[in-house]
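Example record for the data management plan.
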Amino acid sequence: MIDNDLSHLYPPFAEQVQRFLYKVNSEGLGAHVFEGFRPMERELELYAKGRVCKDGKWIIIHPELVVTRAFPGFGLHAYGVAIDMAFDGNHQKQGAQWAWTDLDTFNPARPLPWSRLGQLGELVGMEWGGRWTTYPELPTFQNGFGLRVHQMYDILQAEGLQGVWKAFDKFGRRAAA
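Corresponding structural encoding:
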């Protein structure tokens, strides 16, 4: 199930997202949080897209269907410190018509302002996935608060999500100093 409830995020990250959304809305970009926190079941559901598991190994069989490279527990969504954004691709229809492409689906001549969205996320201190060189993800914004994902995973296994958030509190303050 898709979760875009900001209260499920690590609280200092949720505050960062709020500052980001204020800037996004101030510029009228028409972008919204599509998904934030992901439980491991959701992580696995997304990881399995385009893949099959044979003898304990995941094999890509439909590359065009792959939506993430992060195995469950090795993406920051699982720790409440990542969001995926989406644009409303058709303002003429009621409700959000989620769009992740480079072009507005209602007006294909109009490119969607991913670069500006990325700049705004970076202005509030988030890492923008659009700058990743090996597998850019335009919708992704995250903040590891001084920890690497392998460290988060180890803490999660030993102490649960609250233990990871306590580590963010500890290392995040040190990283900000």
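Summary line stored alongside the record: The helical segments are 11-26, 40-48, 114-123, 149-176.
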